[in-house]
Design a protein that fits this description.
about 230 residues, alpha+beta, Immunoglobulin-like, 4 helices, disordered N terminus
């Protein structure tokens, strides 16, 4: 039922956004030329809308795709999804396929999708990536409450004695008390970028986007500095 509603919403869109795909080898970070990129509606993944190839720089052409009206994303409280979602399947000779579900496309905005492909000698299994809904639109559990006042005890090893901008941050893939969830090292700049793209809309004014990103950076660095 959800897929049929999503499909109807996608085909009835009146605006357009654009998408460009960059395909790079996970080994050596070299561009992957002649990678085949198949694009479909996330609500109708079996029906390919476009199939394109990458150039010598590993880049696709810029595609124009249907997107909901711009005003939907300017009022986040309304129940209408403000972005379209597309699925990508990327294939290239000598590499394992990569599928990415739910790539967002906003009205009037360019969606840049980076794809890292692993050579077959590294792995032969297909890589599947599912992008969750934007937190402004998706249904997520409430944030776990934290104490407003916490003790400040410098350990000398874990809590830093000065504020620094790290190259990597450790992301715990679960609730704080879940010891079974994995920990992942993510580049600081990639973490900020991914959080921002999940919590704000690209259609907002530049000043609004900058203010939100500064808030995300401040919160993240506070976590690194105090472990709160």
């Amino acid at each position: 039922m959800r897929n049929s509603r999503l499909r109807a919403a996608q085909v009835n869109n009146v605006d357009n956004g654009t998408m460009k795909v960059q395909v790079t080898s996970a080994v050596g970070l070299i561009p992957v030329q002649d990678a085949r990129v198949s694009i479909s509606y996330s609500g109708d993944p079996q029906n390919t809308l476009e199939q394109i190839s990458t150039n010598a720089e590993g880049q696709s052409e810029v595609l124009t795709l249907a997107a909901p009206p711009l005003e939907y994303s300017m009022e986040p409280e309304q129940p209408v999804q403000p972005y379209a979602e597309y699925n990508l399947i990327v294939e290239a000779e000598g590499y394992r396929p990569v599928s990415i579900e739910n790539v967002d496309v906003f009205s009037g905005e360019l969606s840049l999708q980076d794809v890292r492909m692993e050579p077959l000698e590294v792995s032969e299994e297909e890589k599947n990536i599912v992008i969750p809904a934007n937190t402004l639109f998706g249904n997520f559990p409430p944030k776990i409450a934290e104490a407003e006042i916490k003790p400040v005890d410098e350990s000398g090893e874990i809590v830093l004695s000065r504020v620094v901008v790290p190259e990597y941050v450790v992301v715990h893939d679960g609730t704080p008390g879940d010891s079974t969830a994995g920990d992942y090292y993510v580049r600081y700049k990639d973490y900020i970028k991914n959080v921002a793209s999940s919590e704000i809309y690209a259609t907002w004014p530049e000043s609004t986007i900058r203010a939100n990103i500064l808030a995300i950076m401040s919160f993240t660095l506070n976590r690194v500095y105090t472990e709160w």
